């Protein structure tokens, strides 16, 4: 044992450890008083960096949720306004339907037209004034608006709302052959099928980029109903309607069969074939012919009725399918006592089948009407467009501005225009609903992620009070014992006095 009085090593050693204990005690006191394990970078440099980044992400996630909620609010306002527009459109539709009824006189239709125009003005006001935070929603300018929902740059989604202004609502309408069936008639021969009534393998009809000649083989009769079905099944957003109805171009009167002649009418339609025998020496007026044709309609799918005047024959199929009538006369010895004018059955010009020209036919393809709330683009190859009377090109919508219900034809078109507008509004509402669902899912995910991120930050930054209290008690005890030992160490140099006695 060495004893020195100029340097008290024991006291110095105890003092150094006492200062260390004091620092630890102060750190523990700071943590317990603030609740944070990391109060400055010196407490945990790496932990501070990680905790700060986690805090940043949590705050950004919460702001992203607020941004998404603003997007939902804008979508809700737009959807609410579209709901009002929908109500106005349905009111316009019922008025157009009322105007399509020919029991209305011109004054009544003029009044309905005025009502429709007022409803259209109401739609204009709604669509042009709907806004969120000063931003117009339904006038077509709300395009590619960014919702930043994530904590990092680029974590966004885009929202666009198409215009709901009257000039941008409506339907593209396309009618083959101007709405008239394509009729081919001949005064000699029977129908065997030839251009333009047959499909050729090199032909194709394309609607909005999609071929619509599925199911046709080379040599098949063209059929408006089958093409319309293909369009409805394969072309999104386009509704096709087939109609095949032909009216005699002259009054029917009576068809007389000579006493030594006989005649047949063979009808081919969507359901099959049937033959009607016209007996020798018999006369057939309009009602008799209607009865004969309808008597075999279950086998052919071809029906007959009188026109609105009650004097002309109307032939039609219920689904717009193609049909054919073959006429044949078996002449007797007497000539000139049988005459069947095909104009009575819908031929464009007088074509007579008699005991000289013993065969003839009428072949009707039908007409196709296309409707869509968006523009329709039509292209064709092989000349099928001419065969069907369909014009190629791009057909833009006919808007609500063009609605006219002052006659039956325009009122019927108005119903199609309004139907397209209603579909467009419903589509917009559906899109907005999907946006709201998507944004709500984002909010839910952000909220959960923010909670988990804050929990991760808390584990790093916040103090564990139980553990820290135990540490504080330890440091406090060390401080007390250190002070006691420093006092003892300061007494050691006095032992040198024992050697000096």
Strand order of the largest sheet: 14-15-9-20-5-23
* Assembly state: single chain
Point out poorly predicted stretches.
none
Measured as a percent range, the helix fraction is 40-55%
Query: Rg, please?
Result: 45 Å
Strand content: 15-25%
Outline the biggest β-sheet: 6 strands, antiparallel
Distance between the termini: 19 Å
Number of strands: 23
Task: Classify the secondary structure makeup into a structural class.
Answer: alpha+beta
Form type: rod-shaped
Mean pLDDT: 90
Count the domains.
3
Helical stretch count? Answer: 10
Subcellular location: Secreted; Bacterial flagellum
Family: Belongs to the bacterial flagellin family.
GO cellular component, one term: bacterial-type flagellum
Keywords: Bacterial flagellum, Cell projection, Cilium, Flagellum, Secreted
What do you see in this structure?
This protein is 44% helix and 21% strand. It is α+β, with helices and mostly antiparallel strands and 501 residues long. The strands form seven sheets. The chain has a six-stranded antiparallel β-sheet with strand order 14-15-9-20-5-23. Helix 2 (45-99) packs antiparallel against helix 3 (106-129) and helix 2 runs antiparallel to helix 8 (408-461). A hairpin with a 6-residue loop joins strand 14 and strand 15 (313-317). It has three domains: 1-35 and 463-500; 52-169 and 407-450, f41 fragment of flagellin, N-terminal domain; 172-396, no CATH class. This is Flagellin. Keywords: Bacterial flagellum, Cell projection, Cilium, Flagellum, Secreted. It comes from Desulfurobacterium atlanticum. It is found in: Secreted; Bacterial flagellum. Residues 415-500 form the Flagellin C-terminal domain.
């Amino acid at each position: 044992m060495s004893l020195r009085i100029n340097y008290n090593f024991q006291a110095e050693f105890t003092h150094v450890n006492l200062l260390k204990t004091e620092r630890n005690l102060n750190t523990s006191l700071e943590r317990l008083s603030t609740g944070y394990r990391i109060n400055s970078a010196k407490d945990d440099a790496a932990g501070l960096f990680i905790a700060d980044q986690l805090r940043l992400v949590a705050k950004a996630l919460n702001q992203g949720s607020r941004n998404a909620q603003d997007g939902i609010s804008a979508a809700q306002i737009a959807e609410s306004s579209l709901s009002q527009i929908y109500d106005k459109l349905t009111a316009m539709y019922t008025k157009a339907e009322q105007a399509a009824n020919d029991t209305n006189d011109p004054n009544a239709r003029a009044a309905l037209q005025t009502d429709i125009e007022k409803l259209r003005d109401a739609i204009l006001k709604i669509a042009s004034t709907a806004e969120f935070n000063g931003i117009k929603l339904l006038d077509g300018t709300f395009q590619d608006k960014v919702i930043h929902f994530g904590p990092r740059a680029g974590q966004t989604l885009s929202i666009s709302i198409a215009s709901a202004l009257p000039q941008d609502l409506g339907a593209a309408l396309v009618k083959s052959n101007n709405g008239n069936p394509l009729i081919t008639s001949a005064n000699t021969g029977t129908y065997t099928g030839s251009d333009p009534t047959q499909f050729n393998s090199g032909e194709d009809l394309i609607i909005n980029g999609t071929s619509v000649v599925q199911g046709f083989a080379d040599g098949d009769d063209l059929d408006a109903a089958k093409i319309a079905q293909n369009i409805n099944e394969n072309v999104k957003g386009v509704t096709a309607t087939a109609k095949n109805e032909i009216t005699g171009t002259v009054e029917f009167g009576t068809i007389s069969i000579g006493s030594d002649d006989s005649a047949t009418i063979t009808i081919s339609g969507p359901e099959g074939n049937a033959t009607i025998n016209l007996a020798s020496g018999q006369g057939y007026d309009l009602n008799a012919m209607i009865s004969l044709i309808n008597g075999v309609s279950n086998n052919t799918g071809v029906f007959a009725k009188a026109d609105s005047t009650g004097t002309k024959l109307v032939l039609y199929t219920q689904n717009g399918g193609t049909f054919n009538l073959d006429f044949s006369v078996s002449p007797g010895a007497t000539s000139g006592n049988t005459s069947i004018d095909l104009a009575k059955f819908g031929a464009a010009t007088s074509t007579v089948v008699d005991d000289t020209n013993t065969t003839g036919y009428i072949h009707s393809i039908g007409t196709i009407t296309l409707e869509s709330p968006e523009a329709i683009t039509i292209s064709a190859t092989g000349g099928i467009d001419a065969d069907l009377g369909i014009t190629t090109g791009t057909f833009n919508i006919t808007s609500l501005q063009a609605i006219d219900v002052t006659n039956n034809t325009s009122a019927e078109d108005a119903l199609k225009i309004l139907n397209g507008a209603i579909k467009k509004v419903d589509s917009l509402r559906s899109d907005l609903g999907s946006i709201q669902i998507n944004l709500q899912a984002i909010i839910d995910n952000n909220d959960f992620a923010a909670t988990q991120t804050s929990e991760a930050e808390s584990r790093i930054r916040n103090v564990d009070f139980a553990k820290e209290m135990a540490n504080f008690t330890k440091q406090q005890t060390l401080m007390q014992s250190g002070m006691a030992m420093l006092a003892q160490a300061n007494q050691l140099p006095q032992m040198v006095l024992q050697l000096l006695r």
